[in-house]
Amino acid sequence: MTASSIQWLFEPETLRFLQDNEEKDPESLLLSKALANKGWNTSLLVRQLKGIKTAKQKFPSLYKNQGILYPPTVSLEQASSEVTARYKASLIKADTIIDLSGGMGIDTYFFSLQSKEMIYVEPQQELLNIAAHNFKALKADHVQCICATAAEFLETYKGHSQLIYIDPSRRKEGKRLSDYKDWEPDIVGLKPQLWKAGDKILIKLSPMTDITAVCKALGEVKEVFVLSDRNECKEVLLQLEHNFNGEPRIHAVLLQSGEITKYSFYASEEQAASPAFSEPLNYLYEPDVALLKAGSFKKIAVDQQVKKIQAHTHLYTSEQLQENFPGKVFQLQAVKPYSKSNITALIGKERDFHVLTRNTTITPEQVKKQFKLVERGNQYLIIFKGGNGTAQVAKANRLK
Q1: Which helix (DSSP H) or strand (DSSP E) does residue 354 occupy?
Q2: Is 135:109 a contact under the CB 8 Å cutoff?
Q3: Do 151 and 193 contact (CB within 8 A), yes or no?
Q4: Which of 1, 112, 254, 353 fits 261 for a cystine, CB–CB 3.0-4.6 Å?
């Protein structure tokens, strides 16, 4: 792909077409004879349209820029979202940063906004060319693009950076790799070379990662960040510091509607915490997924002055409203033992209910289908295992 072969994508007629068809199914354009007659590369046009649709939600800064060239779908999916990339770039201030797993370049770009020297490393030439084009479109002219694997780059790099960022590939031949030993590059094996090249290391991991196992294998992990966006766990970050041998501090970070909420703790504090237990009181709380992934189940109850419903039911309750609880907050209207007749009595003639189920074999889909419920509005049915070990159902209004 050369600059001349894609120039037509950014001509006024093409840009108007993309804007006019933004809401259409991109695949429907593949068989268009009218587009083929224009001499347009329809597969590239479809890829561009898919990228624009994704960017509208995932990379709003790119969406606003008509000069962006979008990569294949798999790279769009694997790229960090703008909200998580911005947060990562705020963690460590550095003049020189190396991104050893460049990909689409989203993380590189937001790191570049706060660095004087930014190095982007990517082994796939086509992906590198796309990223290089976009850095120019975004006026990130100081980004240096190098086509190499992480290991190849580190073998020849003679400089020294303040931060090295790496997002190892967790896929091979379309399959997800859960074991960190199978990731590319080998983050454990590369550590000596990483420390030669940089002062600090920041590693991005999948939300499915066994954080404890990876931290133990790596060592020198000073901080762990679990990021969620609108109650969806997006990624885990490990910040390493050379020769650090203490207990890592864990941060559950909630990114929502432009606001950042952070809850921090040590695993030893979680283990030592002794929360109080209670049957449902006036208010019910469901922790954000970032807290659950981070492993905060007991200490959060103590810190937020709420009580746990049951040891393995990660719902909490209180008499007084704790409106700053990091998660969903509900005001209870009624709580009954779980049964079809009790649900019928609770919902009456209403059918607008969201359904949550916790620590029970009952699924939301079963309940919605059985009672013909539609998920809209602020009313919830919450089904959970209570302190006595039996299932209960609560009718509640969501406050937050």
Answers
A1: strand 354-358
A2: yes
A3: yes
A4: 254
For 201-233, b/e burial (b = at least 16 CB within 10 A) is: bbbbbbbebebeebbeebebbbbbbbbbbeeeb
Tens of pLDDT, residue by residue over 88-109, are 999 999 999 999 999 999 999 9
Residue 33, both tokens: 């004879």
Q: What CA–CA distance (Å, rounded) separates 261 from 294?
A: 14
Confidence of residue 317 (pLDDT cuts 50, 70, 90): very high
Measured CA to CA, the distance from residue 71 to residue 120 in angstroms comes to 16
3-state secondary structure 236-296: EEEEEECCCCCCCEEEEEEEECCEEEEEEEEHHHHHHCCCCECCCCCEEEEECHHHHHHCC
The residues facing 119 across adjacent strands are: 98, 144
Residue 308, strand partner residues: 277, 316
- For residues 252 and 291, the answer to whether their CB atoms sit within 8 Å is yes
Q: How far apart are CA 102 and CA 141, in angstroms?
A: 16
Q: Is the peptide bond before 185 cis (omega within 30 degrees of 0)?
A: yes
Q: Phi first, then psi: give them for residue 2, nearest 5 degrees.
A: -110, 165
DSSP 3-state assignment of 319? coil
6-11-15 Cα angle (round to 5): 100
Per-residue pLDDT band at 41 (split at 50, 70, 90): confident
Structure tokens at 297: 């189940």
Residue 383 near residue 391 (C-beta atoms within 8 A): yes
CB neighbour burial string for 96-117, b if at least 16 within 10 angstroms, e if fewer? bbbbbbbbbbbbbbbbbeebeb
Q: First CA to last CA across the chain, in angstroms?
A: 48
Integer-rounded Cα Rg, in Å, for the chain is 25
Name the pLDDT band for 178 (thresholds 50, 70, 90).
Answer: low
State how far the alpha carbon of 48 is from the alpha carbons of 175, 252, 290, in Å. 25, 35, 33
Q: Is the dihedral of CA 351, 354, 359, 365 positive or negative?
A: positive
What distance in Å separates the CA atoms of residue 102 and residue 352, rounded to the nearest whole number? 45
How many C-beta atoms surround the C-beta of residue 322 within 10 A?
14
